[in-house]
Amino acid sequence: MNPMWMMSDTGFVAIYTPVREDGVEGSPVSASTEPIAVEPDVLKEVKQKLDLGSVKFEALCDKDQSTKKTTVVGTLERRTLEVNRKRVKVIKPGSKTSFPTTEIRGSYAPPFHVELFRNDQHRLRIVGDSESVVDLMVQSRHVRDVIVLVIRGFAQRFNSTSLNTLLKIEHNM
User: Fold this and answer.
1) How far is residue 172 CA from its own chain's centroid?
2) Which contiguous run of DSSP H or E holds residue 92?
3) Predicted confidence (pLDDT) per residue in 6-51, tens digit
4) What are phi and psi of 103, to 5 degrees?
5) Parallel/antiparallel/unpaired status of strands 11-16 and 4-8
6) Residue 126: CA atoms inside 13 Å, Cβ hemisphere, count?
C-alpha cells in the first residue's frame, strides 16, 4: 500500500490503494485531517512582512545531520535567513576569524520548496535544488509558521507556483 499525500488549504488528505499479496487491488481509500488554522497573529505578522518586501530571520542550523537522535546543542550554529521578493539567502555569520558566508542563495523557481516536519514544530527545511538544502531550527512554532508563510507568499508572487506545491509536509520523519 503506497500512501499518496496531498496538501490543501483545508487540511491533509492521504489516499491509498490496498493491494493483496496475490496482486488484486482494492478500492482507493482516503483519510483527511482537520483544516489547518493559521492563527490571526501569525497571519497579521506575515502580511506585514510581505508588505515590507525584505525580511531577516535568526535561526539555528544543525551541522551534525548524521545523528537522528535528539539534537545536542553543541552542534547548532547561528544562521541568518534573508527573504525578499526575488530570492532566499541563508548566511553563516562572520566571526573574529572569518567573513560571513552564504550557504544557500536562490530564487523561488522550481524545484524550490519549504518542508515541515510533523514531529518537530521548530524545524524547517529549505530546498533550493538537490545541491542546496538546509535544515533550520527556530525558537517556536509561531516563528516557523511565519517564516514558511512569508516564503510561500514571496514565492507565489515570483512564479505563480501554487501554495500546495511550495509547502510540502515531510511525513517520513
Assistant:
1) 14
2) strand 87-92
3) 444 444 556 667 777 888 887 776 655 555 567 888 888 988 999 9
4) -90, -40
5) antiparallel
6) 32
